[in-house]
Structures are given as C-alpha cells and as structure tokens.
Amino acid sequence: MGQTSYATLNTNSLPSQAVNDSRAFIGRLKPDAGIAEPLYLQLQRQIIQMIEAGELNDGDSLPSERVLAEALKLSRTTVRRCYDELREQDYISTHGRAGVMVKAPPRINPELGKLKGFTEEMREIGVEPSTQLLERRIVSDRTIASVFNRPSTARFLKLVRLRLGDGIPMTREVAWYDLTIAPALAEWDIEGSAYQFLQQRCGIALDHGEQTIEAAMSNEDEMAVFGFLEPSPCLLLKRKTYATNGQMVEYVEGTFRGDAYTYRITLKMSP
C-alpha cells in the first residue's frame, strides 16, 4: 500500500549568521554619521536586510527605542523614526509589554512536480504576483542556441524580470524563448503568464519541463534587487520547457531568495 511523505528543501540549513539576541543584533548594526544617508534610514535598511535574509525571524524581539539608542549612541528620535518606518512597512509590530517584534515576510511553499509559471504558482497559494521588467531584447546567442539545439543564428526573446509576491521581491529570473517556433512572442507585452500566451496565442501545447534546483549565493545583480547588503543563500532554479512535439520552447534561470522559499515534494512508495 502506497503512502505519501513530504520532503522540504529548507534554505535555513544553509550557512547564515543568526541574530538571536539583543547584543548580536546591535552588533550587526553599523550606523555611520559620516555618510550622506540619514542615520534612521541606515538603521532601517540594515534591519530590513536582516529580516529578508532570514537572520531575524517572525516573532523575534527587538531592543526598545531607549536600549537601542543608548547602545548605538544615537538619539531616541532617530531610533523612533526608524521603528516608525519599519512599522509602516509592516516589518515590525509593537505588542505592549512584549515590546517590538519582527513581522517577517511569509515563506512561499510551492509543490514540485507540476509545470506552472510564477504567476500561476503565486495565485494558487493566495499571493498576488507582479513583475518588474528589467530587460527585454531579441538576441542571437551561441551558448543559448546550443541549449535549444538550434543554429547559432537562431533568434530568441530574452527577458530579465524581477518577480514579486505581495510586493516582495521573490526571484530574479532570466528567460529565453525560441522565436523559431513561437514568433508571436516577439510582440508579447509581457503581461500575464508566458505559458498562457504560448498556449492561447501561439497555439503551442506544453507537455513537460526538466528542472534542477541547487544552492547558490546571490551575486551583485541579485543583491541589488533583493536589497541584500552582502551575498546571501538563494536557490538557483534551471528549467527547460518542452512542447508536446518534443521541441524545447523555454529556458529559464531563476534565483529565488532563500529566506522566502521552501519547495515541497510529494514522494510515493513504488508499487
């Protein structure tokens, strides 16, 4: 009799420096009065970095305004403005005697084994997807052509996109689409799901995808869009998508922030 078990790929197991007490937290903050950026913004940016890197977890307590101001030799007005901004952006909350507590962004928990795009994946779990287009070009690339098993002169639509869930940057995605079999993609306005466009506008029936996931550290481009101050653990996803006729339609390399993604896999006993 078969049974189902669940395996979770959890990037919390990757090396990171946990901020689990007030002294460690305060020690990570480095406000610099010698630069143009206001001190409260420096604190705000550094605290957000710790939250989004998973170094501060949902429910963690932060020092009071007085304690933090004294430890960093700053005015309470500076710390109060920092906390007010963080509270306004929903990164922290205040709970009476419990004090200031972290409100970390929810982890996205999609299931592996189903071919779906980012838009569909987010909506299925109740998260509102959105996209920022960073680059859109028609290219001929010898390396990518070899991935698609096409001549070096083949043309591809290259998209670099920042994908967001509920307004939070989740993944920086670089995708290539074969214009030989989907020429209509050259006119695509990048709205909605690529898979829906391929099937409904290009008449291409998608069949399956081949996907790998590996641990990686964020590079400079990814640090910039995720707001990381230093390289942080991420998941690097590479996917090839095929039509029912066996032709490869899409190749994607997506870097997912490790503090917001947990992949879920359903395993069944062999018959």
A few lines on this structure:
By secondary structure, this protein is α+β, with helices and mostly antiparallel strands.
- What is the CATH class designation of the largest domain? Alpha Beta
Uncertain stretches: 1-20
Shape: elongated
Q: Roughly how many Å apart are the termini?
A: 8 Å
Largest sheet data: 6 strands, antiparallel
> What letter string, H or E per element, gives the SSE order?
EHHEHHEEHEHEEHEHEEE
Strand content: 25-35%
**On the 0-100 scale, what is the average pLDDT?**
81
**Helix content bin:** 25-40%
Number of helices: 8
CATH architectural name of the largest domain: 3-Layer(aba) Sandwich
Number of domains: 2
**What strand line-up does the widest sheet have?**
5-6-7-10-9-8
Number of strands: 11
Radius of gyration, rounded? 22 Å
**CATH homology group of the largest domain:** Chorismate lyase-like
- Can you tell me the CATH topology of the largest domain? Chorismate lyase
Question: What does this protein look like?
Answer:
The chain has 271 residues and is an alpha+beta fold. The chain folds into 2 domains: 4-102, Arc Repressor Mutant, subunit A (Orthogonal Bundle), CATH 1.10.10; 118-268, Chorismate lyase. The chain is built from 8 helices and 11 strands. It has helices at 22-28, 39-52, 65-72, 76-88, 118-124, 142-148, 194-200, 220-226, and strands spanning 4-10, 61-62, 92-94, 100-102, 129-139, 156-165, 168-178, 206-217, 233-243, 248-257, 262-268. It has a 6-stranded antiparallel β-sheet. It has a 3-stranded antiparallel β-sheet with strand order 2-4-3. A hairpin with a 5-residue loop joins strand 3 (92-94) and strand 4. Helix 2 crosses helix 4 (76-88) and helix 3 packs across helix 4. The protein is elongated.
